[in-house]
Amino acid sequence: MIGVGGYSAATGSDAIQAGKFDLLAIGRPLIANPDYVAKLKSGEPLIDYSDEMLAQLI
Ligand SMILES: Cc1cc2nc3c(=O)[nH]c(=O)nc-3n(C[C@H](O)[C@H](O)[C@H](O)COP(=O)(O)O)c2cc1C
Question: Relative to the CA of 28, which ligand 1 atom is closest?
Answer without folding.
Answer: 25
